[in-house]
Amino acid sequence: MSCALVLACRFVSMAPQSRSRSTYVPPAWKQQRQKKKQVERWKTALARKSWEEQQREVEAAREEERRAHEERSQAVAAAQRRRAETSAKLKKRTRRGQPVLSNQVDVILQKLGAGSS
């Protein structure tokens, strides 16, 4: 019976006292833990912002490279078409197998016009 009385006294003494929220101050270790978590959140946010900025720069560089590649490929395709047309003109022959002279003259005039401008 005395053991039950001792246990009852312990539970009563361990029961939390009523504290008002305004005067409650958490223990120092709890404050340190909260501060550490806050610092970690801040570091994480800062690292994320830095990473996102870096990703935007990488994405912009990729877009610039893609656009430059597209321009180069269009220029190459245009030059290839132009050479094919010129080649087709120069390959034309008359019924007797002679080259069509007007096409030869046109190609020479195009070269002169391109050289003067």
UniProtKB/TrEMBL annotation:
Residues 51-101 are annotated as: Disordered. InterPro entries: Fyv7/TAP26. It comes from the Eukaryota. It holds the Pfam family rRNA_processing. This is rRNA-processing protein. Residues 51-73 have a biased composition (Basic and acidic residues). The lineage of its organism: Eukaryota, Haptista, Haptophyta, Prymnesiophyceae, Isochrysidales.
